[in-house]
Write a structure and sequence with these properties.
The chain has seven helices and twelve strands. It has helices spanning 17-26, 59-69, 84-97, 123-133, 184-193, 211-219, 241-252, and strands at 8-13, 32-38, 51-54, 74-77, 101-104, 117-120, 136-140, 156-161, 173-177, 198-202, 223-226, 237-238. The strands form two sheets. The chain has a six-stranded parallel β-sheet, with helices on both faces. Helix 1 (17-26) links the parallel strand 1 (8-13) and strand 2 (32-38). Helix 1 crosses helix 7 (241-252) and helix 5 (184-193) crosses helix 6 (211-219). The longest helix is centred in the middle third of the chain and has 14 residues, at 84-97. The protein starts with 7 loop residues before the first strand and ends with a helix.
Length: 253
């Protein structure tokens, strides 16, 4: 009697909406075994369907070892567009183990009529640009990068993050603990209530957080947009979970 063919093991480096959607799309495929890996930086993450591991790998070497030990057949990097360290580790590990790798990256934001965008190449660039544009700054770059703004003693910052930030942080700061999706009306009210003069954000490209850009446009508020790093050289990129699923099935055929 012939035994059933072994399921192919897919590792999704996740934590994003796209990663959860991809895991859900692949969950019912009897030919696949899907594991989603979360970094563990958020206290109460939204978990995808299927098997989940939480925590780091120990660099590129540790990830390569995990890929070998768990017999991973394909790797999909669906982390945040600014998680360039883990993306670099994934590229090195996949090349070392000879596992096909895809980067799943949602499209970036594009300015429209009425937008007053100022491009920044890094958090440090944003910290230099923003105080020249206004004194009350809405900072939506995540709690992990607040140290870059900690030396700014004159501006007042409104910081929004999922978990409470830890020092070092700007000395004049108020914190809102919240998680998207956000609404246009809610964002507009937030800007009015806190008398925001500048918005600072990363080009995450997520629809859930885009209303702040529309609210800033309507209010005539300048926006400092931090450009996202590119995917590692030579790694193919898909923009949607459906494209990633098509790539996966082609790669494993």
């Amino acid at each position: 009697m012939n035994s059933a063919p072994a399921r192919r093991h897919v590792l999704i480096l996740g934590g994003t909406t796209e990663a959860r959607r991809l895991a859900g799309e692949l969950a019912d495929d009897p030919a696949l075994r899907v594991t989603s890996s979360l970094a563990g930086r958020v206290a109460a993450p939204r978990l995808p369907v299927g098997q989940v591991r939480i925590g780091g790998f120990g660099g590129a070497e540790g990830m390569a070892r995990w890929l070998r030990e768990h017999q991973v057949d394909a790797l999909i990097d669906a982390t945040h567009p600014f998680a360039d360290t883990i993306s670099s580790h994934a590229a090195r590990a996949a090349a070392d183990v000879h596992v096909p790798l895809l980067a799943l990256r949602r499209p970036g934001w594009v300015p429209g009529p009425g937008d007053r965008w100022h491009a920044a190449g890094s958090l440090a660039d944003a910290a230099r640009l923003a105080p020249a544009l206004g004194e009350r700054i809405f900072l939506t770059t995540g709690r992990m990068g607040l140290a870059t703004f900690a030396h700014l003693t004159e501006p007042w910052f409104l910081v929004r993050s999922v978990d409470a930030p830890e020092p070092p942080v700007p000395p004049r700061m108020a914190v809102i603990l919240d998680r998207g999706p956000f609404t246009l009306d809610g964002e507009a009210e937030l800007l009015r209530r806190h008398r925001i003069e500048v918005l600072v954000t990363k080009d995450s490209g997520a629809h859930a957080t885009a209303p702040k850009l529309a609210a800033a446009r309507a209010a005539g508020i300048p926006v400092v947009v931090i450009r996202r790093p590119p995917a590692p050289q030579g790694v193919p990129v898909a923009e949607t979970p459906a494209e990633a699923a098509d790539w996966l099935r082609t790669s494993l055929a």
